[in-house]
């Protein structure tokens, strides 16, 4: 990690490896597009109205002996621009002896139109909280405005496991009123790639467009 501080340049490189032997000998990978929502008290949701975003790709339960998970990440920031990316690779050994590999990756960038720089939390090895130069208040502060983009990909197809492949493209606008409050808007275009034997129904090439808004207060 190289951190010159005060927005003068940051490079972060990280690696991770983990091994697990599931206690119940079952592992499952699944994912939805770059959006998450849930309903409090889901039992009261009217019939036919989904309480969560359903997974678009799903391996189903895999009878697994063990698995290895490899992870590599890279981040860069200078001035008002920052970017980060990550690659994950999983090796799953089924109880019948078959070995499957699954992978995923993303790349994300952001730029502050109002001149802020992304802070860095050295202890946690992650980007820190955004602190607007001119917080929104009754005296007329505008807060911090950010434009952001993201690409992500996941491949859950290998040998007898055909969980599907998905690519997401996301564009976002974020408004940070102060370091504890923000509003977000995202447009997500998701590509679900065809698979001959996806867990559940066979899937053909298809697209989905998602608009998402979020208000957050975080202390």
End-to-end C-alpha gap? 27 Å
The class by helix and strand makeup works out as mainly beta
Supply the number of helical segments: 0
Overall 3D form? globular
Please describe the biggest sheet, giving its number of strands, its sense, and whether it closes into a barrel. Answer: 10 strands, antiparallel
Arithmetic mean pLDDT: 89
Low-confidence segments, given as residue ranges, are none
The number of E-state strands comes to 14
Proportion of residues in helical segments: under 10%
Pattern of helices and strands = EEEEEEEEEEEEEE
> Could you tell me the strand content as a percent range?
over 45%
Give Rg in angstroms.
20 Å
Q: In summary, what is this structure?
A:
The protein is an all-beta fold and about 220 residues long. The protein has strands at about 1-5, 10-20, 25, 30, 55-60, 60-80, 80-95, 100-110, 120, 125, 145-160, 160-180, 180-195, 205-215.
What does this structure look like?
- There is one protein chain.
- By secondary structure, the protein is mainly β.
- The protein contains no helices and 14 strands.
- Strands 1, 2, 3, 6, 7, 8, 11, 12, 13 and 14 form a ten-stranded antiparallel sheet that branches. The chain has a two-stranded antiparallel sheet with strand order 4-5. Strands 9-10 form a two-stranded antiparallel ribbon.
- Strand 7 and strand 8 form a beta hairpin.
- The protein is globular.
- The two termini are 27 Å apart.
């Amino acid at each position: 990690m190289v951190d010159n501080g005060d927005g003068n340049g940051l490079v972060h490189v990280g690696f991770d490896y983990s091994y697990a032997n599931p206690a119940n000998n079952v592992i499952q990978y699944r994912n939805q597009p770059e959006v998450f929502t849930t309903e409090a008290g889901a039992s009261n949701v009217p019939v036919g109205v989904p309480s969560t975003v359903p997974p678009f790709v799903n391996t189903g339960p895999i009878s697994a002996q063990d698995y290895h998970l490899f992870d590599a990440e890279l981040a860069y920031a200078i001035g008002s621009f920052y970017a980060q990316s990550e690659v994950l690779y999983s090796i799953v050994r089924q109880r019948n002896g078959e070995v499957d590999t699954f992978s995923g990756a993303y790349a994300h960038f952001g730029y502050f139109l109002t001149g802020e720089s992304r802070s860095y939390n050295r202890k946690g090895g992650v980007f820190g909280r955004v602190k607007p130069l001119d917080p929104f208040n009754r005296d007329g502060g505008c807060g911090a405005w950010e434009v952001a983009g993201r690409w992500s990909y996941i491949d859950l197809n290998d040998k007898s496991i055909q969980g599907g492949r998905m690519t997401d493209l996301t564009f976002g606008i974020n408004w940070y009123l102060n370091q504890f409050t923000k509003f977000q808007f995202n447009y997500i275009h998701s590509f679900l790639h065809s698979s001959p034997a996806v867990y559940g129904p066979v899937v053909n090439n298809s697209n989905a467009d998602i608009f998402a808004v979020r208000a957050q207060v975080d202390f």
